[in-house]
From TrEMBL:
Lineage top rank: taxon: Bacteria
Annotated ranges, domain HTH cro/C1-type: 35-89
Protein name: Helix-turn-helix domain-containing protein
């Protein structure tokens, strides 16, 4: 999707309305970025904009970064302050705000969903390309239900089975992303050690490996194994993901998942560093065909 610029330099947000890949998270970021462009174009400080909506400069910052939803009256006041007065233009902003404030499909899992992971789901939903490097578990988008049960239980050893089942159901729902009409490309590099750990037992692991062989037949899925023979790899054992978006208002984001939280990096310098690491990993790892051959051999060994 290519956004259009108005003669005055304003991005035509009408292009984002009702696009299937622009979920609420992406819509918030797009709308926030456009409000920032309007504010700076009008020569208005964050402090003055905050006063106009009975808030502070910090509230404006959160709105412009797409970190919070939009109240109708706040949007009305900001558009007026920024001299966006034409009804048809204002209506586009109101419609995008409604989209930004809507609940994503993951809302029904709010009883088990961590706040920090909710943002990742929204970004994942909007991504055009997902590159990920994993050293402990297989990517969630490629896990079987049984494998997901085993690794989720490791992360929640004392949780009731009902919660584990809900978390696994959430993961299975996420995977529909890969088969939708406008599916993103998933490019995963996985350390060999991940495949040597038979989470759930041998039978579960064999089924998981067979599932990977089917997954890599999809045109939008690429899997590479980083074998032990590579030695010290470029990432020094730290897992990470890079999400890239078709929308020009959405910068690439690096996702670093931790035990009880996550970091999201979007400064260009950080993104460039992680992209360089990912590129080196892809160069060092087995090719997709070598990876498929490796999976076949491992299945034979386990069988």
């Amino acid at each position: 999707m290519t956004a259009m610029m108005r003669p005055d330099g304003e991005l035509s947000i009408a292009r984002y309305l009702k696009e299937p890949q622009v979920g609420p998270t992406a819509a918030r970021i797009v709308l926030g970025a456009q409000l920032r462009r309007l504010r700076t174009g009008a020569g208005i400080s964050r402090e003055d904009a905050g006063k106009a909506i009975r808030g502070s400069h910090a509230k404006i910052t959160r709105l412009e970064r797409g970190q919070v939803g939009f109240k109708r009256q706040d949007l009305v006041d900001l558009l007026t302050l920024y001299h966006v007065l034409a009804p048809e233009r204002r209506d586009d902003y109101f419609e995008l705000a409604d989209q930004a404030n809507s609940a994503g499909w993951w809302h029904e899992y709010s009883d088990v969903l961590e706040d920090w992971f909710e943002l990742h789901l929204g970004l994942e939903e909007a991504a055009a390309l997902i590159r990920t490097y994993q050293v402990q578990f297989l990517p969630g988008l490629l896990q079987t239900e049984e494998y997901a049960q085993a690794v989720t239980r490791i992360g929640y050893p004392n949780a009731p089975q009902e919660k584990v089942d809900r978390l696994v159901a959430l993961r299975m729902e996420r995977q529909k992303l890969l088969t939708r009409t406008d599916a993103p490309r998933l490019w995963a590099v996985v350390d060999e050690a991940v495949l040597r750990r038979p989470f759930g037992g041998t039978e579960v692991m064999v089924a998981q490996l067979q599932h990977l062989l089917k997954a890599v037949q999809m045109p939008n899925v690429t899997l590479q194994i980083a074998p032990f023979s590579v030695g010290a790899n470029a990432a020094a054992g730290a897992p990470f993901s890079i999400l890239r978006f078709a929308e020009p208002e959405l910068p690439d984001k690096v996702y670093l998942e931790q035990l009880t939280s996550a970091l999201y990096l979007d400064k260009q310098e950080s993104v460039d560093q992680y992209t360089a690491v990912m590129d080196r990993l892809c160069t060092e790892a087995n090719t997709p065909q070598e990876t498929a051959d490796f999976l076949h051999r491992l299945i034979d060994q386990l069988g």
